[in-house]
């Protein structure tokens, strides 16, 4: 491939990435956006293989076969609810790959000051991303405890690690590439030390942030090897990761600084609900069916439990039955409902729920006071009124869906157990709340039958 043609094709790939990303902003165009971006990646990979003096095609093909096989198995096996861990691993490997590319490049290029700086950046950001992501993975997968790790002298240890990293950076720049591995070692240590103190409840934000870092590492590696396509795609990942981080941080009413400092999400904490007040109104599927069938308006609030139970088709069926009876049915989507950004949207799309019925938090909250029934399915933290009412709650200030303001609230979940944040939910003990204790799929299926009989 001629130099100009290669440059042109890389540019085309970058344009495909950008258009693809743009199309991801609406569910209607997301599928084609994904395909366009994948096409861009294919172009970039093919041109790289044809254009560069690659080491050996045999090694590359072997790598691609093994990688694709692992990817295919993961794609089929990993449950949607475990997607955050998988994304964490992907980010980590992306960061690690960028660091390795930069280290490998040292022997091939003449080290000018500029190149050395980009190599140091790739190695530091890439390795922090790798080890930080591995810790995030281990926390979400339950391999290590999700609680924030606190110990005496933590600030001192962090400070020492930071100082060691600064020393390794200085030595690499002054004394050259021999110091790259110690540099990677200290950066890796910092990644572990920084993510361990952060609680499981903040992991999604950490993962989005590490995603952004993996993009920055790739971009820096792009400068090292002089690849425009890598610089641009890395920058796109870096920027979109940061935007996602900011959206999630806002949705949890935190700041990125507070999240990264860690400590949030400690289990325990007094909910302030006395045992005498812990009386829930238990309802049967028939009770729920009557409340729903005679309502004018129903807002469904899907949460993590809907995903676990795979109850998306059952809720869609219920929506059909209710709309047949003239009930207005909409879905309220909390930005961090479920376990990954867009979780509920993907789930409901799978069951062919019309996008028009999906309403965001800010737009739907004013409607709850005029709504007959808020039907909460497998959601907990995102409807916990303590966030609004109790300044001492660990989730105080987190924007929630104001379901408690609806005339009647129906909650479908198996028990009174807490959700992801591990805290009690006073909503379950309110007078206008009916609890249907059931697996979401089984419970909703019974409700559908009962609605048909009303
Ligand atoms: P959660 O607060 O985690 O509550 C889910 C509820 O679902 C649980 O209380 C559980 O109660 C119930 N459940 C589990 N299996 C069920 C089943 N088979 N049938 C019916 N119910 C079932 O969920 P949420 O309201 O969606 O909130 C999400 C939480 O996850 C937030 O704290 C958020 O910060 C965090 N988080 C979000 C993300 C993103 S980006 N979305 C990523 C990671 C973490 P029972 O055991 O009683 O059934």
Describe this structure in words.
By secondary structure, the chain is an alpha/beta fold. The protein contains 17 helices and 7 strands. It has helices spanning 3-23, 27-51, 57-77, 83-105, 113-140, 154-175, 180-195, 203-225, 228-251, 256-261, 285-293, 304-309, 312-324, 343-350, 361-364, 386-389, 440-453, and strands at residues 281-282, 297-302, 328-333, 358-360, 373-377, 408-413, 433-437. The longest helix is centred in the N-terminal third of the chain and has 28 residues, at 113-140. The radius of gyration is 25 Å and the shape is globular. It binds 7-thionicotinamide-adenine-dinucleotide phosphate (TAP). The site of 7-thionicotinamide-adenine-dinucleotide phosphate has 31 residues, from helix 12.
What's the gist of this structure?
The protein is an alpha/beta fold and 454 residues long. It is built from 17 helices and seven strands. The longest helix has 28 residues, at 113-140.
Helix and strand arrangement:
Layout: H1 3-23, H2 27-51, H3 57-77, H4 83-105, H5 113-140, H6 154-175, H7 180-195, H8 203-225, H9 228-251, H10 256-261, E1 281-282, H11 285-293, E2 297-302, H12 304-309, H13 312-324, E3 328-333, H14 343-350, E4 358-360, H15 361-364, E5 373-377, H16 386-389, E6 408-413, E7 433-437, H17 440-453
Bound molecules: 7-thionicotinamide-adenine-dinucleotide phosphate.
């Amino acid at each position: 491939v001629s130099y100009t043609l290669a440059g042109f094709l890389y540019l085309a790939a970058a344009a495909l990435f950008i258009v693809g990303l743009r199309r991801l902003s609406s569910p209607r165009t997301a599928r084609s956006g994904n395909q366009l971006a994948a096409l861009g990646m294919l172009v970039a990979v093919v041109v790289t293989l044809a254009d560069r003096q690659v080491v050996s095609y045999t090694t590359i093909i072997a790598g691609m076969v093994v990688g694709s096989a692992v990817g295919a198995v993961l794609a089929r096996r990993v449950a949607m609810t475990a997607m955050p861990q998988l994304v964490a691993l992907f980010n980590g490997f992306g960061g690690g790959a960028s660091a390795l590319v930069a280290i490998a490049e040292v022997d091939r290029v003449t080290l000018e000051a500029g190149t050395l700086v980009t190599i140091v950046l790739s190695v530091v950001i890439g390795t922090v991303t790798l080890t930080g992501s591995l810790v995030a993975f281990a926390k979400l997968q339950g391999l290590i405890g999700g609680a924030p790790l606190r110990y005496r002298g933590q600030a001192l240890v962090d400070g020492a690690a930071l100082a060691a990293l600064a020393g390794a950076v200085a030595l690499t720049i002054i004394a050259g590439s021999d110091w790259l591995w110690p540099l990677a070692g200290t950066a890796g240590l910092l990644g572990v030390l920084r993510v361990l103190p952060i609680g499981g409840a903040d992991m999604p934000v950490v993962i989005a942030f590490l995603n952004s870092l993996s993009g920055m590492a790739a971009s820096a590696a792009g400068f090292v090897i002089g690849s425009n396509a890598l610089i641009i795609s890395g920058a796109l990942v870096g920027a979109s990761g940061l935007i996602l981080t900011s959206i999630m941080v806002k949705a949890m009413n935190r700041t990125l600084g507070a999240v990264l400092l860690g400590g949030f999400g400690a289990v325990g904490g007094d909910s302030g609900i006395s045992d005498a007040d812990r009386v829930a109104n238990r309802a049967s599927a028939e009770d729920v069916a009557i409340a729903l069938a005679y309502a004018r308006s129903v807002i469904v609030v899907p949460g993590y439990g809907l995903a676990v139970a795979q109850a998306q088709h059952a809720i869609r069926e219920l929506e059909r039955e209710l709309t047949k009876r003239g009930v207005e049915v909409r879905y309220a989507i909390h930005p961090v409902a479920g376990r990954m950004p867009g979780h509920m949207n993907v789930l409901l799309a799978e069951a062919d729920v019309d996008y028009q019925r999906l309403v965001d938090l800010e737009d739907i909250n004013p409607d709850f006071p005029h709504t007959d029934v808020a039907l909460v399915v497998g959601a907990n933290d995102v409807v916990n009124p303590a966030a609004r009412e109790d300044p001492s709650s660990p989730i105080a200030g987190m924007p929630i869906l104001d379901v408690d303001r609806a005339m009647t609230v129906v909650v479908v979940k198996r028990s009174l157990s807490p959700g992801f944040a591990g805290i009690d939910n006073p909503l379950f003990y309110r007078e206008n709340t009916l609890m249907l204790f059931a697996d979401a799929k089984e419970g909703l299926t019974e409700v559908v039958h009962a609605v048909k009989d009303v």
